[in-house]
């Protein structure tokens, strides 16, 4: 029987493009993991009891440590399972910088194309939830604007896909050469999203034959070895474990965050989401870890990236 404190659990749903990024990351490293399927729309009570309110997909759980956002997931997988590496070569810093574009600008374009092209065909509850999440409070007008601007939006995503196609035109198997890297998963999830969720996506992608060949290579990596788990069992795992507590301070932190300080963390865009409250355990330029406790789960450490997330100190 596997050690519950080290077993990888991914809370996700099949249609999620960002979860596909994490699933491809598992495939690159050939990992065994447990799959907990969560609802596409809130409420997500079995997830938020673990995260403290964070509702985005995916979330990775290892014992009583909860990793929010694919940035944290990829970073933690590389730390625990360094071979094969997500970062072949000497360009790790550049790949992390590039990921801020793939996860924001490039993905946002894909979302606007998919949502905008669907128009009135989107289910009302899904349109309201995702529109608010990605387009802000005035999401209904944002959907109309995306629909009207579709040719422009497609032109904006066409250019970087053509650049990638030209790079892959030398016959390389993956973006950096023969070995897959984190950047393959980070770009693949956007292409996967366009192909699967935009009616014109498959026809649009035929313009990029080298990219389509690369896409097939990434698909062949698979998702590692997966077995299903119920959300109740995942909560029981958290309750049976204790988080890995490594206190870390950062003397150069611009917000002067220190272990023990009470804070709330949320994405730094206004998606109408509930912030997560907790006590700082560790902080550095990459991540912030909060300790929280819940009667249903026991003690938990919840990990967030610093890039793309807003941290506010709670006045006591």
Estimated radius of gyration? 20 Å
Question: N-to-C terminal Cα separation, in Å?
Answer: 45 Å
Average of per-residue pLDDT values = 96
Oligomer: single chain
Plain-language structure description:
- The longest helix has 27 residues, at 92-118.
- The chain has a ten-stranded mixed β-sheet with strand order 5-2-1-3-4-9-8-7-6-10, sandwiched between helices.
- Helix 2 runs parallel beside helix 11, helix 4 (92-118) packs across helix 6 and helix 7 (150-168) crosses helix 10 (209-220).
- Helix content is 45%, strand content 18%.
- With 316 residues, it is of the alpha/beta class.
- The radius of gyration is 20 Å and the shape is globular.
Give a short overview.
45% of the residues lie in helices and 18% in strands.
Set down the secondary structure blueprint.
Blueprint: E1 8-12, H1 17-29, E2 32-37, H2 45-51, E3 59-62, E4 65-68, H3 70-80, H4 92-118, H5 124-135, H6 139-148, H7 150-168, H8 182-197, H9 201-205, H10 209-220, E5 225-228, H11 231-240, E6 262-267, E7 276-283, E8 287-294, E9 298-305, E10 309-313
Parallel strand pairs: 1-2, 2-5, 4-9
Antiparallel strand pairs: 1-3, 3-4, 6-7, 6-10, 7-8, 8-9
Helix pairs in contact: 1-3, 1-8, 2-11, 4-6, 4-7, 4-8, 5-6, 7-10
């Amino acid at each position: 029987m596997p050690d519950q404190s080290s077993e990888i659990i991914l809370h996700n749903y099949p249609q999620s493009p960002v979860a596909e990024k994490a699933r491809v990351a598992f495939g690159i490293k050939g990992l065994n993991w447990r799959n907990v399927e969560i609802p596409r729309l809130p409420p997500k009570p079995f997830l938020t009891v673990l995260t403290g309110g964070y509702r985005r997909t995916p979330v990775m759980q290892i014992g009583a440590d909860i990793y929010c956002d694919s940035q944290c997931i990829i970073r933690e997988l590389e730390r625990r399972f360094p071979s094969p590496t997500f970062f072949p070569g000497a360009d790790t810093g550049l790949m992390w910088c590039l990921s801020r574009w793939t996860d924001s600008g490039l993905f946002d374009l894909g979302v606007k194309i998919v949502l905008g092209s669907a128009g009135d065909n989107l289910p009302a509850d899904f349109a309201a939830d995702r529109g608010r999440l990605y387009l802000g409070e005035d999401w209904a007008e944002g959907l109309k604007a995306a629909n009207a601007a579709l040719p422009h939006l497609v032109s904006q995503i066409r250019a970087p896909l053509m650049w990638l196609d030209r790079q892959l035109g030398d016959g390389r198997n993956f973006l950096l050469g023969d070995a897959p890297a984190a950047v393959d998963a980070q770009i693949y999830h956007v292409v996967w999203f366009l192909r699967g969720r935009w009616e014109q996506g498959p026809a649009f992608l035929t313009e990029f034959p080298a990219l389509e060949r690369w896409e097939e290579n990434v698909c062949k990596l698979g998702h590692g070895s997966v077995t299903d788990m119920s959300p109740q069992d995942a909560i029981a795992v958290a309750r049976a474990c204790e988080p890995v507590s490594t206190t870390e301070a950062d003397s150069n932190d611009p917000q002067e965050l220190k272990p023990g300080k009470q804070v709330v963390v949320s994405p730094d865009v206004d998606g109408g989401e509930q912030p997560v409250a907790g006590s700082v355990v560790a902080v550095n330029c990459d991540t912030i870890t909060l300790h929280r406790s819940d009667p249903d789960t026991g003690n938990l450490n919840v990990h967030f990236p610093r890039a793309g997330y807003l941290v506010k100190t709670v006045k006591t």
